[in-house]
Amino acid sequence: MKEEREAFRESQDIIKKLADEPPYPDEHGKVIRLNRRFVLLDVSYIPFDVLYGIDELFGPVSKTILFRIGRRWGDEIYARYESFGFGREDCLKLSAAGAWYCGWGIVTFELGAESSRARIYNSFEVESMVVRKGISDENSCHLFPGVISGIYSRFLGKECSIHEEKCAARGDGYCELVATPGIDLT
Ligand SMILES: [Zn+2]
User: Fold this and answer.
1) pLDDT tens digit string along 44-76?
2) pLDDT at residue 178 above 70?
3) 47 C-alpha to ligand 1 centroid (Å)
4) For the chain, what is the largest distance between any 2 Cα atoms, rounded to a whole number of angstroms?
5) Residue 184 banded pLDDT, cuts 50, 70, 90
């Protein structure tokens, strides 16, 4: 598995080749990145307040809802790179580079025969939870595992179950997710 610094350099190199982009925000008050409009949100609000806002109304299903949102995002992120004509390995590298570029953290993927892994250094989701709740005695990630599930499911052509083996929100140095393929999507 790549170390944080190496993964950062690789992502930086990929993005440099893709686009020469203006400073943000532009004269129209828009942050444009990779031909799309982005907004900057304080991580002390997002996703913490989304999770707890839904939790107030619907209870623990809020975690599943957040996962499902992430799942859609991961699927769309990977599909977008695919639509540009990139191959499978490149789509994975671009997904990691995009995560770095948008300030989500530093992501590295490792493919295995039985299962594959994703490691996330400095996850914004972890920071959101830790800033508001402090270090936890349980895993706090739901959105990011959903994103990784969407990416790996597209990459492998099979629905993947995701298990978070390590989580920085409970004091680990990073989050590590294990994706195990299940239902065939093809
Ligand atoms: Zn985590």
Assistant:
1) 999 999 999 999 999 999 999 999 999 999 999
2) yes
3) 13
4) 50
5) low
Q: How far away, in angstroms, is 84 Cα from ligand 1 center?
A: 30
**Residue 164 alpha carbon to ligand 1 centre in Å:** 7
How does residue 185 score in pLDDT terms, banded at 50, 70 and 90?
low
Q: How far is the CA of 168 from the centre of ligand 1 (A)?
A: 5
SS3 category, 160: strand
Distance 183 CA to ligand 1 centre (A): 25
DSSP assignment letter at 3: -
Separation of 141 CA from ligand 1 center, angstroms?
A: 4
CA distance 81 to 159: 19
> Full-prediction pTM beyond 0.85?
yes
Distance 130 CA to ligand 1 centre (A): 11
The pLDDT tens digits for 149-169 are 999 999 999 999 999 999 999
Q: Which two tokens stand for residue 45?
A: 């609000």
Would you state the structure tokens that stand for residue 118, as one six-digit string?
Answer: 């994703």
Position 130 scores a pLDDT of 96
Q: Domains of the chain by range and CATH?
A: 4-184 (3.30.1380.20)
Q: Give the Cα separation of 178 and 166 in Å (integer).
A: 10
CA of 139 to the centre of ligand 1 (A): 6
What is the whole-number distance in angstroms between the Cα of residue 50 and the centre of ligand 1?
Answer: 17
CA of 67 to the centre of ligand 1 (A): 12
